[in-house]
């Protein structure tokens, strides 16, 4: 019988048929990949359906997979209306407009398309301010914000037909005269976009899973099954949050010679080490070498102070996993 490091159930060999990848394959395949055989198929399926899917499809790092060629354009799948990602066009005539990405078969590329929305020309801004359909202000609120109703094209509707636009604005007491259709550009690479992302507990759990699986790869099974790791494993598997923070974010690069802002090496990084207090175990995870997630693997670990310091760089260009040296 084998004990799963996540659900902690002892199960027969038939329950461990799937290979668990430390770094989800959705973020690249690498030579001599780091894999585990001590995660049961039930946990593996749960993580794939409920945790890793959100990390891959609904984060900045997930969208970056297509920018850096980790995934082909036809594999792009939008997350849907409840996406954690908000895209806005950052420049040009349609600056500020809300958008989303989807795969276009004709272009064989991931393209940018506008969400249904309304833009109102604001004198103070000298440009349009855009509102999604369920966020349209009243006419009075618009006037207080500096809406110029005398502008030749004072109101602009995107991805919405004339009848629906009249109905939505009519609910707010706003009338208009239809002046024709306008279309923003679609190709993503030709348009600067501003991205806002909500990083919630599902994403934190996905990152924590990478960190804990990485520890399990380098240490004995008996070590990661110790009770000191129970708060983390229950957070990852069952979304049970302890009374302290398990995952934090910082902007500093993991590699000592890389800047906070600016170009960094293209790849993923994972490290584990003792914390400065000497009794806690921490991990750092950075996908595409962007933000650094700091994961508390064990707080006040009571056991042996063994040498657990490890670090690897997953080189996307060469598909190799490189060992990191200490600072």
Please give a structural write-up.
The chain is of the alpha+beta class. The chain has 3 domains: 2-74, no CATH class; 85-196, no CATH class; 200-323, no CATH class. The chain is built from 8 helices and 17 strands. Helix 6 (201-218) crosses helix 8.
SSE diagram, text form:
Layout: E1 2-3, E2 10-11, E3 20-21, E4 35-36, H1 41-50, H2 52-57, H3 60-67, E5 85-89, E6 98-104, E7 109-114, E8 117-122, E9 127-132, H4 139-145, E10 155-158, H5 162-170, E11 193-197, H6 201-218, H7 221-224, H8 230-238, E12 247-250, E13 267-274, E14 281-286, E15 292-298, E16 310-315, E17 320-323
Antiparallel strand pairs: 1-2, 3-4, 5-6, 5-11, 6-7, 8-9, 8-10, 12-15, 13-14, 13-16, 14-15, 16-17
Helix pairs in contact: 6-8
Concise account of the structure shown:
The protein has helices at about 40-50, 50-55, 60-65, 140-145, 160-170, 200-220, 220-225, 230-240, and strands at about 1-5, 10, 20, 35, 85-90, 100-105, 110-115, 115-120, 125-130, 155-160, 195, 245-250, 265-275, 280-285, 290-300, 310-315, 320-325.
């Amino acid at each position: 019988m084998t004990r799963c490091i996540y659900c902690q159930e002892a199960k027969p060999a038939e329950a461990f048929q799937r290979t668990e990848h430390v770094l989800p394959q959705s973020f690249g395949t690498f030579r001599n990949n780091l894999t585990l055989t001590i995660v049961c198929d039930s946990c593996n399926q749960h993580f794939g359906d409920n945790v890793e899917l959100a990390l891959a499809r609904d984060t900045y790092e997930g969208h970056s997979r297509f920018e850096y060629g980790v995934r082909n354009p036809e594999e792009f799948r939008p997350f849907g209306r409840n996406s954690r990602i908000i895209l806005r066009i950052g420049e040009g005539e349609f600056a500020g407009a809300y958008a989303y990405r989807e795969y276009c078969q004709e272009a064989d590329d991931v393209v940018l398309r506008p969400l249904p929305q309304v833009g109102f020309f604001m004198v103070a801004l000298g440009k349009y301010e855009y509102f999604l359909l369920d966020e349209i202000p009243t006419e009075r609120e618009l006037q207080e914000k500096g809406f110029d109703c005398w502008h030749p094209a004072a109101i602009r509707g995107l991805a919405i037909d004339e009848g629906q636009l009249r109905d939505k604005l009519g609910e707010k007491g706003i009338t208009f005269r239809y002046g024709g259709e306008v279309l923003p550009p679609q190709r993503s690479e030709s348009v600067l976009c501003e991205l806002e992302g909500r990083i919630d507990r599902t994403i934190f759990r996905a990152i924590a899973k990478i960190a804990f699986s990485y520890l399990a790869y380098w240490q004995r099974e008996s070590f990661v099954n110790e009770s000191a790791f129970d708060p983390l494993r229950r957070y990852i598997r069952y979304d049970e949050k302890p009374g302290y923070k398990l995952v934090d974010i910082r902007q500093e690069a993991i590699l000592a010679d890389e800047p906070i802002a600016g170009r960094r090496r293209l790849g993923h990084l994972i490290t584990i080490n003792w914390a400065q207090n000497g009794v806690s175990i921490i991990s750092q995870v950075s996908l595409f070498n962007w933000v650094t997630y700091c994961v508390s693997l064990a707080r006040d670990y009571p056991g042996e102070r063994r040498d657990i310091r490890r670090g690897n760089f997953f080189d996307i260009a060469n598909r190799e996993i490189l060992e990191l040296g200490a600072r």
